[in-house]
Design a protein that fits this description.
Length: 173
């Protein structure tokens, strides 16, 4: 008797439960890492490096699961498996690594970049290129808009979907 190995895409509810379960375990890992870091280096150092610890904790979670080619705890919970396109094979190591890097480091890089841009725009002594960005009205608009991006809001579409999530969700089509 032959079994049908057709790819059945996961339902939205299953994906949401998967992400919630992964978030739960990532939070547990982050709490443990924060606790260890605070004990070793103190609260002042922890406050200085908490975003880096969060990024590293997320990367560690996905490196232990996805990068090694096994399901995350959320995927296991709802019984889904990442596959490459219509093929029934696990994505290559490079593809998994790229997904993990996009998912874990992109929010950190975006946040740091926006914070740096805010500092540049708020400083009237900094001359920006192109020259139009030096206009006072444009700077005031940028000062208003950039913090919204930092909080994860898109001022254009009024959604609170972070850019890296769009890349991640695209892989489930």
């Amino acid at each position: 008797m032959q079994t049908n190995k057709a790819r059945i895409p996961p339902q939205t509810a299953a994906l949401l439960r998967c992400v919630q379960k992964d978030d739960e375990y990532q939070r547990l890992l982050l709490n443990e890492n924060n606790d260890i870091f605070q004990r070793l280096f103190g609260i002042r150092k922890w406050l200085k490096f908490r975003k880096e610890i969060e990024c590293l904790s997320k990367f560690t979670y996905f490196a232990i699961t996805t990068l090694t080619g096994v399901q995350t705890l959320g995927e296991e919970y709802v019984d889904i498996v990442q596959v490459h396109g219509d093929k029934l094979i696990v994505p290559s190591f490079n593809r998994r690594l790229m997904m993990i890097l996009l998912q874990t480091t992109t929010p950190y890089i975006i946040e740091k970049t926006i914070a740096h841009l805010i500092k540049l725009v708020e400083d009237p002594n900094v001359r920006m290129v192109p020259e139009i960005l030096n206009d006072t009205e444009i700077r005031l608009n940028l000062i208003e808009i950039l913090p919204k991006f930092k909080k994860g809001e898109c001022p254009l579409c009024r959604e609170s979907v972070q850019p890296f999530q769009l890349v991640f969700l695209q892989n489930y089509d």
